[in-house]
Design goal:
Order of helices and strands: HHEEHHHHHHHHHH
Shape: globular
Radius of gyration: 22 Å
Number of strands: 2
Strand order of the largest sheet: 1-2
Low-confidence stretches: 209-231
Mean pLDDT: 77
Number of helices: 12
Length: 231
């Protein structure tokens, strides 16, 4: 069994888009479970959370006091804790780089060699050409370490996209499948599966408030054929 088969929807969302990708996947599943309602750029809970909800879903649901914007919700402490847990799980599985490797090591590798090279050349310890080649190699390693995903993480995400490529084309999806579709395909999946909810909640403009309903979103065949469950 490869990593893409064992990852939760919110984990795939984090792998694809970081904290916000995971939050969007979680909100999509909560909507598919029928426990969210929208205002103008805001969301609120309207029902009871089922037992099979993912940990991040539970944190999002629990943090919904009244009607709040999705970005505000994502900043709540319990949601941030759940997001750290999602990230840590991915780090432990070797799919995401730890912060120290992704940020600190590249900074050190980029900053120190160019600073030390003149001193080493002046001391006769290395030649100019050899020193420059070494600096280029080290900077290349630093650049390789900077992406959020590791090579196995990128491979798992690509495999998941292939395995679930038909999700937005199917007429009925379970809540977890909705989360997978949104986690993998982002805005196109939101527009196909839940256009009105996504627009009303402000999910299509990065979580900022939306004040108008765009009728073009409701023209999606999914919005027209699958009823209020998706919208």
């Amino acid at each position: 069994m490869d990593d893409s088969e064992t990852l939760a929807a919110t984990e795939i969302g984090w792998l694809q888009g970081g904290n916000w990708g995971a939050v969007i996947a979680g909100l999509a599943m909560l909507h598919a479970r029928g426990v969210l309602a929208t205002g103008v750029g805001r969301i609120r809970r309207t029902g009871s959370l089922p037992q099979d909800a993912e940990p991040l879903e539970r944190a999002l649901y629990a943090a919904l006091y009244g009607s709040v914007g999705p970005r505000e919700l994502a900043r709540q402490k319990r949601v941030q804790r759940a997001l750290r847990d999602v990230r840590q799980s991915l780090v432990e599985r070797g799919l995401v780089r730890a912060s120290s490797r992704r940020v600190l090591m590249p900074v050190l590798l980029v900053a120190l060699p160019p600073a030390l090279l003149p001193k080493l050349v002046a001391a006769g310890m290395v030649g100019v050409t050899e020193g420059l080649v070494a600096v280029v190699v080290i900077v290349g390693i630093a650049v390789w370490l900077m992406p959020r995903r590791t090579v196995p993480g990128a491979r798992a995400l690509a495999t998941a996209r292939v395995r679930h490529r038909d999700l937005v084309e199917r007429s009925q999806l379970e809540p977890v499948e909705v989360g997978l579709a949104v986690a993998l395909f982002g805005t196109p999946a939101l527009q196909a599966l839940m256009p009105k909810f996504a627009w009303d909640a402000g999910l299509l403009d990065g979580g900022r408030s939306s004040h108008h309903i765009d009728s073009r979103l409701d023209s999606s065949p999914w919005g027209a054929n699958t009823g209020s469950f998706w919208n």
